[in-house]
Amino acid sequence: MSLNHTPSSERVHIALFGKRNAGKSSVINAITNQQIAIVSDIEGTTTDPIYKSMELLPIGPVVLIDTAGLDDEGSLGAQRIQKSYQVLNKTDVAVLIVDSTKGLSQLDLHLIERFRLKEIPFVVAFNKADLVNPPIPYDLECCIGISAKNGHHINELKELIASQIKPATACKMLVSDLLNPNDLVVLVIPIDSAAPKGRLILPQQQTIRDILDAHAIPICVQTKELSCLLVSLGKTPRMVITDSQAFAQVSDIVPPEIPLTSFSILFARYKGNLESAIKGAAFLDHLQHKDHILISEGCTHHRQCEDIGTVKLPQWITEYTGKKMQFSFTSGTEFPEDLSDYHLIIHCGGCMLNEREMKHRLITAKEQNIPMTNYGIAIAYMNGILKRSVELFPNLHQYL
To answer: Are residues 282 and 373 in the same domain?
Structure first.
């Protein structure tokens, strides 16, 4: 990803849903004026969701998602439908594409109810309006007749989609609200076999950018060079931010008067789940032999021998509890709707997930009474430094 690109997690997610051959792929091509999706008269051409990040006027940076038909058939069709419904968990605005020559079906009406249940703003676009006058129901708002074939009302459709996007109630910041101009911020970034070649991972990139936006000074260092750096600095850093896996070593090095936190703790705050994650970490002390722990990541990176999620966390949890646990792992969009098999969920910082999908996972866990924490908070808790790592946020001390 280019450093100049808006991360996918920060883009408005617009998903197109509907039955096979309603024209979803044709509409997405018309909206973007690009041949993003394959178009065919054969039903079921789109099998898996197709994602396209782009700038879309008058909205700005978006992710457009083309989904498989929700009336697909057979065992593979059922899997495709499940994938399409999973997209709802990350959808900021839904666009239901209806074939004007057939009108609204019971499946379309069912989908509209799901939009409403999940409180997803939506638009109903009656495609193929060049063939027949679309039968638009009087009781549905935000409907429009369009033609992907000749471009009729495509610009109006984009404007209607834009009208459904709720403006942010507040400007979210990772760390810049805690900084003053010229503050020094030390970022500890281990470079090991799990680190991507030639680049920094997204949480590190975004944190550096947020520090720069505050006109503060980010200083990046590996764990081994941290002691030398702190000695050589001309003034005390405002804070140290570390990768979670180095928490124990960094805590031993950084003097107690310097605030210390982690990238994943900052992202939990940014995503709105820091309080619940702190509460969830305490459940590590209540785990029993053979309890089942789900370790979930929002991205799908290639696993390395030193992978924090599948290797290091299970080792640290086993050492901390002294008990043999069962571990399961998910990544990307895979997150179970039924969590009844699990006693604890440990999630990554969620930098690759948009706000709606992260909230969906938190709500799913809460509704099923499954405690949920994240990597950095769990690691800080097991190392006895969680209280120190959230000193920057005094309102959270009551949960420790």
So the answer is: yes
